[in-house]
Amino acid sequence: MDKGRSIWLVCTLLLAVVALAGCYEPEPRPRVIGEDRPVPLPTTQLIPQYRLLGRSIQGRAITAQILGDGLDTTLIVATIHGNEPAGTPLVKRLADHLATNPDLLEGRRIVIIPVANPDGMAAGTRENVRAVDLNRNFEASNRVNNGDYGHQSLSEPETRALQAAIEEFRPNRILSLHQPLNCIDYDGPGKALAAAVASSSRLPVKKLGAKPGSLGAYTGEELGIPTITMELPAAASNLSEDALWERYGQAMIVGITYSLPASK
Fold first, then answer.
1. What's the rounded Cα separation, in Å, for the pair 216 and 233?
2. Backbone phi, then psi, for 70, in 5-degree steps?
3. Which of 25, 106, 148, 255 has a CA 20 to 30 Å removed from the CA of 8?
4. Considering Cα of 136, then 137, then 139, then 141, what sign does the dihedral take?
5. Are 158 and 134 in contact (CB under 8 A)?
6. Is there a contact between 263 and 114 (Cβ–Cβ < 8 Å)?
7. Residue-range domains of the chain with CATH
8. Alpha carbon separation from 93 to 52, 72, 90, 100, 214 (Å, rounded)
9. Rounded to an integer, what distance in angstroms lies between the CA atom of residue 74 and that of residue 256?
10. Which one, of 145, 138, 100, 96, lies nearest residue 116 by Cα?
């Protein structure tokens, strides 16, 4: 066989191999039934929802973080007085704890407002930037109309944001974090809840009485929602988030998990 014919045969064989390879279709992989359905996230990776409730006078966002979707709803409010900021890191740690311990959310919904008075917090003042005490600005029957408490109820955008949260989420209980009175106060039918929270903290129960136009006066006394005020000590502002959680974390958990007495 001459050299030219050999080259021709080799080229022909190579072309045949390439042609066959191009026509080859691999056997399809067996399909697993249901494999095209989305895989649910592990419960430890549940992502909380966030809601913009409103904005402060200076335009700062007032937000709610929502965890769980059960019927037993707890509303938690921190730093409604801007110079009482220790509740903010405490509720942040609570949210982190609930996200990694989703069993605590079974049958529950927790709505956390970490900073109810963002302008006051930024300025280090009890009141908002119009010098109104937001915790005297609710539409309770005992409120007083004046420059310090607002010339009418819900005159401030911050309290209107809180009012909107109350109306939307319709909480079964409310926990409000304050300083510096070092006790557990309550309004409305919250005595048993207050005692349970106090037993898990270093804070005694003290009935301070509903202040004019306060959140407790409105939600506790007017609406009949058990409303607990956790009055942390003044020095709590100097504690780290870890230290706050070590001292008061269990009280927060009891506050959201305690079985409330059946309403009459």
1. 19
2. -80, 180
3. 25
4. positive
5. yes
6. no
7. 46-257 (3.40.630.10)
8. 20, 21, 5, 11, 26
9. 6
10. 138
Per-residue model confidence as pLDDT tens digits over 205-249 = 999 999 999 999 999 999 999 999 999 999 999 999 999 999 999
Tell me if the bond preceding 233 is cis, omega within 30° of 0.
Answer: no
Give the neighbor-by-neighbor strand order of the sheet with 49-55. Answer: 49-55, 61-67, 108-113, 72-78, 173-178, 227-233, 181-187
Residues 121 and 127 sit within 8 Å (Cβ to Cβ):
no
The CA-based angle 81-211-66, given to 5 degrees, is 50
Q: Is the pLDDT of residue 34 over 70?
A: no
How far apart CA 123 and CA 78 sit, in angstroms, is 16
- The amino acid that residue 211 corresponds to is K
Question: First-to-last CA distance in the chain?
Answer: 109
| 49-55 and 61-67 beta bridge pairing | antiparallel
Q: Does position 202 have pLDDT exceeding 90, yes or no?
A: no
Q: Indicate the helix (H) or strand (E) that contains 51.
A: strand 49-55
Q: Taking 60 as the threshold, does the pLDDT of residue 147 lie above it?
A: yes
